[in-house]
Automatic annotation (TrEMBL):
Keywords: Acyltransferase, Transferase. This is N-acetyltransferase domain-containing protein. It comes from the Eukaryota. One of its GO terms (molecular function) is N-acetyltransferase activity. Residues 4-155 form the N-acetyltransferase domain. InterPro entries: Acyl_CoA_acyltransferase, Diverse_Substrate_AcTransf, GNAT_dom. Belongs to the acetyltransferase family. Signal peptide: none annotated. Pfam families: Acetyltransf_1. It comes from Parnassius mnemosyne.
Length: 174
């Protein structure tokens, strides 16, 4: 097998990445989950300033075999952080070190940027990924820190923004 190389994504990679995002969603049992288009990826990653995300592309012999989609975050505890939204390797290249190479590059960039932590989620049902991450030394925050990963989706974001809280108490300043 040829060596895997990692590089930054280019605009012309986005149709392949879009397809892979849907492959990942199908693998995770949510084929209708992704609600974004190639145009959204282009706007948010290449036309926004600053970009909403960055993509690392894993290639082998000129073929894209995986990607890591990340965004920059900020922690009041550790300052700079990366959030790894997706790490995906095509099925034919899994267990060949592609994910390791992508994470190595991500961590090298984290070091160069002064990033003190990289966070992500993994499906509880994905035992192969959980074993892989454990070998890297990743901690399960729910187990180690008693934290849960929570989310407000778009309808609830809108509701909260307009003051429509569920079982809300009155907030008063005296």
């Amino acid at each position: 097998m040829s060596p895997v190389t990692v590089r930054d994504a280019r605009r012309d990679d986005l149709p392949v990445i879009h397809r892979m995002i849907h492959e990942l969603a199908t693998f995770e049992g949510m084929p209708d989950g992704p609600q974004l288009s190639v145009a959204d990826l282009e706007e948010d990653g290449f036309d926004s300033s600053p970009p909403w995300y960055f993509l690392l592309i894993a290639e082998c012999e000129g073929e894209i075999v995986g990607y890591a989609m990340c965004n920059r975050a900020y922690s009041s505890w550790t300052r700079r952080a990366f959030y790894l939204e997706d790490l995906y390797v095509v099925p034919s290249r899994r267990r060949a070190g592609v994910g390791r190479v992508l994470l190595q590059e991500l961590c090298a960039r984290a070091l160069a940027s002064g990033v003190r932590r990289v966070d992500w989620h993994v499906a509880a049902s994905n035992s192969a990924a959980r074993r892989f991450y454990a070998r890297l030394g990743a901690r399960d925050l729910q187990l180690s820190e008693g934290r849960l990963a929570l989310r407000l989706d778009a309808p609830r974001i809108e509701a909260v923004a307009h003051g429509h809280l569920l079982n809300a108490d009155n907030v008063l300043c005296d």
